[in-house]
């Protein structure tokens, strides 16, 4: 795979991510398990990102979503403004964006770029992605947490370099990438996500519809006091044996389908 050409796409495939965000962060009255405030972006067809602003800042009168939103707005600006010399490294975009972000706060963040063949991901914290191939989970990111319910995050003026976990995943036609904040992964098991996605594709649903369905389903489980969930499993594993149900939190989901490039979606 040579780097001699400056074309934006190196491979044969394109993705068109479609996202949705459901906000729940204002519904809880400051209870301990209140989550953060999410943000997301999809840009230039092949860039996407999610971020989750940390909730505790709201106690100091600082909106938990400000930093997360600015971080992603800057990412979007950086990739959109760099058309002549395309950016191809999400970690570089994230480092530049963090250096330019002025809002107080802290956030988890994931930035991803698809070059037409390989998905490049830079991740900090407990947002993540799942790649679904032939109806099963093919690859997934791992959550980066200090301890239960306390994800790694970056704060204003941090240099994210040493916190970033990078992924490079070779993709194929028909693969589906589900990128989301913890609001999805804490409430739905990855097998359930994979089966929803493959059933939806069989029913010819669009990525936008699938993203909306997954987010609504995660929210429903988030309200539940008795459902079995990944979040409850994790709570049990560290000794909170009485915890049952989901985790009410913001939910952000981006669904991207890997398709053959057609002349209509080349640039
Ligand atoms: Mn969250």
From TrEMBL:
Necessary cofactors: Mn(2+); Mg(2+)
Entry EC no(s): 3.1.3.16
PROSITE patterns per UniProt: PPM_2 (PS51746)
SUPFAM superfamilies attached to this UniProt entry: PP2C-like
GO molecular function, one term: protein serine/threonine phosphatase activity
Protein name in the entry: Protein phosphatase
Keywords linked to the UniProt accession: Hydrolase, Magnesium, Manganese, Metal-binding, Protein phosphatase
Catalytic activity, as annotated: O-phospho-L-seryl-[protein] + H2O = L-seryl-[protein] + phosphate; O-phospho-L-threonyl-[protein] + H2O = L-threonyl-[protein] + phosphate
Family the entry assigns: Belongs to the PP2C family.
All residue ranges annotated as the PPM-type phosphatase domain in the record: 21-258
Keyword Manganese: yes
PANTHER family: PROTEIN PHOSPHATASE 2C (PTHR12320), PROTEIN PHOSPHATASE PTC7 HOMOLOG (PTHR12320:SF1)
Record Gene3D superfamilies: PPM-type phosphatase domain
SMART domains per UniProt: PP2C_SIG, PP2Cc
One Gene Ontology term, aspect cellular component: chloroplast
């Amino acid at each position: 795979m040579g780097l001699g050409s400056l074309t934006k796409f190196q491979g044969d495939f394109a993705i068109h991510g479609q996202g949705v965000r459901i906000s729940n962060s204002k519904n809880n009255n400051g209870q301990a398990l209140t989550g953060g405030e999410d943000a997301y972006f999809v840009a230039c067809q092949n860039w996407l990102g999610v971020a989750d602003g940390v909730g505790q800042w709201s106690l100091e009168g600082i909106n938990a979503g400000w930093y997360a939103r600015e971080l992603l707005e800057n990412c979007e600006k950086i990739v959109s403004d760099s058309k002549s010399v395309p950016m191809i490294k999400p970690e570089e975009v994230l480092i530049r964006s963090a250096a330019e972000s002025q809002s107080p706060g802290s956030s988890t963040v994931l930035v991803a770029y698809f070059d037409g063949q390989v998905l490049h991901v830079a991740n900090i914290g407990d947002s993540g992605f799942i790649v679904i191939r032939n109806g099963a989970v093919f690859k997934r990111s791992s959550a980066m947490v200090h301890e239960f319910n306390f994800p790694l995050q970056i704060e204003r003026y941090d240099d994210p370099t040493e916190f970033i976990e990078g992924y490079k995943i070779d993709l194929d036609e028909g693969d589906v990438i589900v990128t989301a904040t913890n609001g999805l992964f804490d409430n739905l098991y990855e097998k359930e996500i994979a089966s929803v996605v493959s059933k939806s594709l069989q029913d010819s649903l669009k990525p936008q519809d699938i993203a909306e369905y997954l987010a609504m389903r995660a929210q429903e489980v988030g309200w539940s006091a008795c459902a079995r969930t990944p979040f409850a499993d994790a709570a049990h594993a560290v000794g909170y044996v009485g915890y049952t149900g989901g985790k009410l939190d913001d939910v952000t989901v981006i669904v991207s389908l890997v398709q053959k490039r057609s002349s209509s979606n080349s640039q």
